[in-house]
Structure formats: C-alpha cells, structure tokens
Amino acid sequence: MSLRQVPIDQVIERALNGDRRAIGRLLSLVERGGDDAETIETATHVRARDSHVIGITGAPGAGKSTMVARLVAAFSAADRRPAVVAVDPSSPLTGGAILGDRVRMAEVDTTAFIRSVATRGHSGGLALSVPGSARVLAAAGFDPVIIETVGVGQVEVDVTAAADTTVVVVTPGMGDAVQANKAGLLEVADIFVVNKADLPGASDARRDLELMLELSHVTGQEDADHRPPIIMVNSLEGDGIDAVRTAIAEHRDHLVTTDRLQERRRKRARYEMRVRAELAFGAHLQRRLGEPEFAATVDSVAQGDDTPAAAARKLWQPYA
Amino acid sequence: MSLRQVPIDQVIERALNGDRRAIGRLLSLVERGGDDAETIETATHVRARDSHVIGITGAPGAGKSTMVARLVAAFSAADRRPAVVAVDPSSPLTGGAILGDRVRMAEVDTTAFIRSVATRGHSGGLALSVPGSARVLAAAGFDPVIIETVGVGQVEVDVTAAADTTVVVVTPGMGDAVQANKAGLLEVADIFVVNKADLPGASDARRDLELMLELSHVTGQEDADHRPPIIMVNSLEGDGIDAVRTAIAEHRDHLVTTDRLQERRRKRARYEMRVRAELAFGAHLQRRLGEPEFAATVDSVAQGDDTPAAAARKLWQPYA
Asked: CB distance from A148 to chain B under 8 Å?
C-alpha cells in the first residue's frame, strides 16, 4: 500500500519508530511545505532537541560530499546514527560526484539516512525545508544530523549556519581562504577543514586562515571562548576525518559546558521565526502587488518615473 | 583628490558623463546600500531605461565567464558599449578563472566596464545591489548591461531572471539539463547555450533541453510566443558567440514588438519593490525578535516547546 494513502498521523508514528519509507515520505511533505509540513513540525519539534545538528559548507569543488561520506562512516563506526540532508548543487559535475558518493556510502553503511534535495524549492524554499527535514531525521532518532550545502548563496550559507556546529571546508588554492571570507563563511565557522591537504598550497591555506582568524579575534567574534580549529584532511584517503569528528564532539562539549548550546538554539529559533514571517509577509506583498491599487505604481517604476525605493516604501510603510 | 571627498551629486554627474572612476565609486556606494545608494538610484533610474539588461546564469564550471568575455568582445565589435556585473562565486577555481578572463578582457577591450561583486553582501545583499549596479552602468551609457551570476542559490537565480533577456548556460554532461531544471533555470531561460559544445555529450544535452522545453510547452510558459532557442557554443574558440549575440537581439525585438518589454520591466519593478519591502520588514522583524516581549517565545522554541511555525505566527500575524 502506498504511503500516500496512509493518514499522516500514522506515517508520522511509523517514522518516529524508524520506518525508513515513512521517514522518506515525511521529508517529501516537508519539502513541499504547507499544512502537512506544519503537522509534521508539531509532531517532531520537541523530539528533535537531543540530536546534534552539524552544518557543512564550502565552495563548489571543495570535496564536501566525499568528506561527508567519510564522516558518516566514522560516526557509524563510533556507534552513532548519522543522517545527512544534502542540498544538491546544480553543477552536473558535483551532482555526479554526489550521486557516486551516495551510492558508495549506501554500500558501506545501510543504517545512515541520506537525503538529497534540489537547490531551489518551489514553495517556501530551502530556508524552511532544510531545518524541517533535519528535525524529522532527529526526531526519528538520527544523531548527528548533518546539513551539507554549497557555500554559495545567501540562503544556502544561512541555513548551514543555523546548525549547532558549523564546519567550513576550503581547499588549497590561491585565495581560497580569502574567497571564503568574501562569501561570509569565516564568520559562521566553528571548525575549518582544509580538504585535499595533499595538494600543493595546503599549508598556505592554513596560514591564510590563521591570519584571518587572528584579525577577526581582534575585531571580536560571537563566541570569544572558542577559536575555530583548522584541520588538515584528505577525504579521498580518509586522513584527518577522525580529527574532524573529535573536533565536532569537542565543540558540542564546549557549547554544553558554556551554556552556549541554548544560545545557538535560540539563534536557530529566531532564524526560523524570521524566515517564516518573511515568507508569509512576502506572499502577502506579492498579493498586494497584484492588486489594482498598485498597478499604476508598478507601471510608473517600469517606465522609469517612480524609483523602486520610493515605490517600495508605499508598499511596506503601513507595516513598519 | 579622492572621490570620497567629492560631494555625491558631483560624483553622479561625472559618472553620467562617463568618468570611469566616478562610476566605480557609485558602484561601491550601491553595493554598500543605505542613503547614498538611494540618492544614486533616484539619479540613475530614469536614465537607465534604454539599455538592454541581459542575465547570464548556469552551474559552476559551465564556462560562463569565458563566454561573457567573448560576448563583450562581440558587442564591442558591433559598436555597442557593453558592461558586466559579475557576481563572484566563492570557488577559488572559478574565481581565479574570472580574474584571468577579466585581465585578458581588459587587454582586448578597454571601453567595456567590468564589475565583480562578492557573493554575499553585508547590507541589503545582492538582491538590491545587483539591479542597482546595472542601473548605474546603464545610466552611464553602457548598453547592453550583462548580469552574470552562478545558477546556484535562490537570490542569485532570481536576480538574473529579473533581466530583460535571460541566458542559461549548460554544459555537456550526464543530467546537466535535468540539474538545470532542478535549479529552476529552465523556467527563467529566454535563450539556452550549450557551452563546451566540442565535448562528448553535447548533442545529448541539446536533446534533453528540447525534450524538456517540449514538456514545459504543454504545461504552459510565461511567454507562449517565444520558444527559447538552443545555441551550441565553444567559448574557448569563439564558435557560436555571434549566434548568441543575434539571439539576444532577436529576443529584444520580440519583447518590443509584442509589448512584452514593458511586461518584463513591470516584473522587474515588482521584484525590486518586493525585495526592498521584504528587507525593510525583515529588519523590523529582527528588531522585534530582540525585544523582551519575544524573549520567552524564542526560549520556548529553542527548548522544543513552542513550534517555530506557531511562534512565527505571533510575529507576523499582526501585519497580515
């Protein structure tokens, strides 16, 4: 019997008992958004709080998916039950590599749960669906839950940064650390990984990161008691993966002992509340923009008379 | 004398007269956002309307920047004055390639204006600054203005799709067209380019696109009178570049003769108005979330008691 015909409460019950097909069905509903997604959120939110959520991000081609595959194997070997929400980049090359890794990962370890989602959703989008999917996997008993996104795009970086622990992956190459900084990745990192550390320039990449961390310590960071470690990794060979796993565990301990885990969760709560409110308000604005009242204003902007800023003020000022 | 000490009205006047340093200064101010950016918008909006805005997007590694370099040379050879706003991906490899191309392009053609911006801005972000930068370049007399972004990320795709003509670049490779579809690129394309058309699989990529266009024609597209052409290009050799330039000109003619150019401009006006209103409202929400009134709600969500959806409703319902 197809799960599409099973009432949602029963699908939720099965998923919470670890039924993989039911979990997959819930993830599809969360990605779609709407009322079902909210029912699922209500059923999973409180149960999700014990799992550690890890965000992993970095530039396209940084070897994130290979590293995640290795990390999943390492967590499984340590008797954890890892799950992954991977936001597919639209690159065919990277996409291909991800598929390849997923297949290999599935052969290695059938207990982990791997979910790949499209870069660009149709309703609500990644900003809502990724935390929702992580919540489903956590409530179903997976721990840690790894969110992997490409470190390009505001939404993609923000959603990874809403994790308990955020790992930023860079590779040796001229200006890679500088690029990561430009992409806003420096400020969100709890742990740095220099992947492909066998390549020339790996020690330069480490030095660049150290220098930039030094500078950012001067200007002040969110968590002054934690200096992000820089770990050299060769994901293809598996070198350094256990050091990453240890650094993640140490960061979690740090969060718990300094009471910063709750601060992270409050930050995530604010992030989810704001994103939802913005989406709801955005839909409201979209409707307003379609109303006859605004037709003349839109025309005027399109013709070059009114400026977008002035026209936008007419739209939002009643709400501010 | 540094332009920082020149009153903004004078910098604007110089920029509108084609002074390249003044144009660069305005672009920096637009990227920064705020009052100066709005002053610049007011001075440039109406003057910008005659330039054709071209969006170019595609997966990382699709060879967009090489193609844009060729296209700039082709427009210059046809006595146009092209400018480019390129949103730098954080990839060191692609970033490096862009720099390389820019340098080569600068040698070939010193009349074009090329502006590279970081992927992730600090205030307002790409969604505001990219249309604003295009407006400055158009008002300074550049035509066409090309916006180049990586086709990953909601903001990045949306900002490119707000052009008059949007070109989506794919490369031969298993499932590339499918990936482009997943990334939402199929629905925004007015023209498809299969780049690196000398590689194996190029004809497969074309066939995949044709098939998907066929299917999307069944379900209905925004512009039923325009079927996106698919152009085979080898940017390294320059093959097909003139066909792209011609297709862009034909699409503009189509927009003008069918009165769809105004519809595109209205769409862009609505996009800019909505983005601005959302950002203004988002800042307002961020302040609200920091107020004591919401502290208990945020705590409750962080602890797993309240759901994010329920808490978000408290936040946005007063405005809906």
From this structure: no
Which of A51, A270, A294 has the most B C-beta neighbours within 10 Å, making it the best mutation to test the interface with B? A270
Task: Give tens-digit pLDDT for A265-308.
Answer: 999 999 999 888 888 888 888 899 989 989 999 999 999 999 99
What is the pLDDT at residue B260? 92
- B49-258 fold: Rossmann fold (3.40.50)
The Cα B72–Cα B114 span in angstroms is 10
CATH 3.40.50.300 range(s) for chain B read 49-258
Q: Does A268 touch chain B (CB under 8 A)?
A: yes
At residue B164, the pLDDT reads: 96
CA separation for the pair A171, B65 (Å, rounded): 22
Residue A170 to chain B, least CA–CA distance (Å): 9
Cα–Cα distances (Å) from A192 to A215, A230, B158, in that order, read 16, 5, 30
Assess contact for A306 and A297: CB atoms under 8 A.
Answer: yes
**Choice between A138 and A105, residue whose per-residue pLDDT is larger:** A138
- B78 vs A: CB within 8 A: no
Q: Please give the model's pTM, rounded to 2 decimal places.
A: 0.78
The whole-angstrom separation of Cα B120 and Cα B156 is 10
- Best B116, B119, B301 member to test A by mutation, with max A CBs in 10 Å, is B119
Distance, in Å, from the CA atom of A68 to the CA atom of A163, rounded to the nearest integer, reads 15
Classify strands A113-117 and A165-170 as parallel, antiparallel or unpaired.
unpaired
| Record: contact B303-A265, CB cut-off 8 A | yes
Distance CA A130, CA B181 (A): 20
Is the Cβ of B89 closer than 8 Å to some Cβ of chain A?
yes
End-to-end CA distance of chain A: 51
Q: Which residues of chain B have pLDDT under 70?
A: 1, 88-110, 118-124, 152-154, 174-176, 179, 182-183, 217-222
Who contacts A100 (Cβ-Cβ below 8 Å, separation ≥6)? none
Q: Does A91 touch chain B (CB under 8 A)?
A: yes
Q: Are B196 and B309 in contact (CB under 8 A)?
A: no
Distance set, CA B75 to CA A298, B79, B84 (Å):
31, 7, 12
- B139 in contact with A, Cβ within 8 Å: no
Contact A151 B289 (CB under 8 A): no
* ipTM field: 0.83
- The minimum CA-CA distance between A311 and chain B, rounded to whole Å, is 6
Name the residue facing A289 among B89, B270, B289 (closest C-beta): B270
Q: How far apart are CA A188 and CA A161, in angstroms?
A: 6
Contacts of A286 in chain B (CB under 8 A): 274
CB within 8 Å: B307 and A45: yes
The span from the CA of B47 to the CA of B130, in Å, is: 17
What's the rounded Cα separation, in Å, for the pair B144 and B137?
9
> Which tokens belong to B315?
């936040």
> Helices B64-77 and B92-108 sit at what angle, rounded to 10 degrees?
10
CA A180/CA A213 separation, integer angstroms: 12
Stretch 238-267 of chain B: residues touching chain A, C-beta under 8 Å:
262, 265-266
Residues B112, B79: contact at Cβ < 8 Å? Answer: no
CA of A99 vs chain B CAs: smallest distance (Å): 11
10 Å Cβ neighbour count for B238? 14
Contact of B41 with chain A, judged by CB distance below 8 Å, is answered with: yes
